[in-house]
């Protein structure tokens, strides 16, 4: 047995140079659909990745973890 786990992190919009370049109108449209009302930080996404790579998540496998502020809920 190799104890290999396979999980997916599914980020929504993240505060990056790319999203900073979105026109303000588009940013407002996107944020209107995000229940938490903001973009994720890179550190929030990295925190989920760090957890999944840690021993604490050793029994987690086959999971898709959305880090999207609720954007995917109900869509």
Please describe what this structure looks like.
- This protein is an alpha+beta fold and 75 residues long.
- It has one domain (8-67).
- The chain is 32% helix and 11% strand.
- It contains 3 helices and 2 strands.
- It has helices at 17-20, 24-32, 42-52; strands at 8-11, 64-67.
- It has a two-stranded parallel sheet.
- The chain is elongated, with a radius of gyration of 15 Å.
- The model has no long low-confidence stretch (mean pLDDT 94).
| Ends distance | 38 Å
Order of helices and strands: EHHHE
Helix count, DSSP H or I runs of 4 or more residues: 3
Helix content: 25-40%
Main sheet makeup:
2 strands, parallel
In total, how many beta strands?
2
What number of domains? 1
Radius of gyration: 15 Å
Structural class: alpha+beta
| Poorly predicted runs | none
Globally, the shape reads elongated
**Which whole number gives the mean pLDDT?**
94
Please report which band the strand proportion falls in: under 5%, 5-15%, 15-25%, 25-35%, 35-45% or over 45%.
5-15%
* Order of strands in the sheet with most strands: 1-2
Tags for this model:
75 residues, 3 helices, two-stranded parallel sheet, single chain, elongated, alpha+beta
Summary of the model, kept short:
The protein has 75 residues and is an alpha+beta fold. Helices cover 32% and strands 11% of the residues.
């Amino acid at each position: 047995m190799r104890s290999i786990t396979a999980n997916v992190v599914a980020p929504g919009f993240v505060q990056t140079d790319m999203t900073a370049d979105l026109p303000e109108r588009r940013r407002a449209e996107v944020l209107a659909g995000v229940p938490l009302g903001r973009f994720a930080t890179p550190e929030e996404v990295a925190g989920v990745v760090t957890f999944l790579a840690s021993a604490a998540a050793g029994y987690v496998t086959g999971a898709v973890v959305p880090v999207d502020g609720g954007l995917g809920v109900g869509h």
